[in-house]
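Figure 2 data, in text form.
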Amino acid sequence: MTVKLVIGTQWGDEGKGKIVDYLSKNVEYVIRFQGGNNAGHTIIVNKEEYKLHIIPSGVISGKIGIIGNGCVIDPEILSNEIKSLEKRDIDVKLLISNRAHIIMPYHKLLDGAEERYLADQKIGTTKRGIGPCYSDKISRNGIRAGDILNTSRLQKKLERVIPIKQKMFEVYKIDEKLDQKEILNLYVNFGKQLKKYISDTHIIIQNAVNQEKNLLFEGAQGTMLDVDYGTYPYATSSHVIAGGASIGVGIPPKNFTEIIGIVKAYTTRVGEGPMTTELTDNVGQHLQRVGHEFGTTTSRPRRCGWLDLVVVKHSCDLSGITKIALTKLDVLNGLKKIKICMGYEFKGEMTDIYPYDVDDVADCKPIYKEFKGWDKIENIDSFSDLPKSAQDYILFIQEYLKTPISIVSVGPERNETMII
């Protein structure tokens, strides 16, 4: 039995979708434990591109996908995603936790309004209602997937919540009247569409573990967007680290046999907040262009920079990462010199500890180790096939993190993946 957990070690967009797709060939279930449709995963199989936003990546390989209770779901987006995959002859095998929270129309309106209100201090959210939905979950005003299957229960909850949201609209100067009956009918209809997928998924997962089946858990975003351990407040609204997986699906931490951290060979982030190794020069443009660094969900350009191992070490320590998958090594092709940030200069001293406060992060200066670049990586079957300078690059990362690199991705296709 293997119960593998895949998480991002940076600000998301590390290539988790490809690695999950690659690893899913030997598992029965692929399970999302947090986030919503603000996290896009792109998978390329036989030159066919699939862009997923909430459905677990393993469904492309015919596996059973589970959306855990730690996720938030926009039923319209989910329904459309299912239909889109079915049109491409993908048999969508899906289960949804009845405890997962549902994104409502007022969540999206409030998300956009809050960003406008914050102006130059905005978080840089996707404005898809993720944060307000999680806020309602914590304040115990949420609508859960099981609720949209029960008209009377949903109606009672809306009767309590909608007047509160209408008052909030006044505060944010949102000129819109919420129609309770219209919302009720819309979400009851979503319930009918999704009924066959909704169940007590934590029981199904627990049974699968007890039966010693192989499971793969898929995180969204990356550690630096974790609501506690990321660059708060420039963070997402859920727990991205390994500890969040237990809560987000309903199994104890002892069940995980491997924790695989996905590390992109350079650093990117979307939205606001400090990024110590950000490059705005020709190298940054190279990384963005060659790496196709534009958001799967929003199409926003990603900020790019050299690999920041202070960030990755922070992630490894928090989640107890046992193995690393290094992705997009090929994007560094053609660069004469390549750098890795191995520490920060902060207030005249060197540190390898990621600061608590974003203002302190903004004051940090990167301390780099420089490597010779390489021309091209292609048709690679083993570590020894890599250029010597690429081998040195990988070995330094592995030694710095004291964690083995077991997978190296040198292209977007499944077969452009090397096991070390």
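Caption note: Residues 162 and 179 are 9 Å apart (CA to CA).
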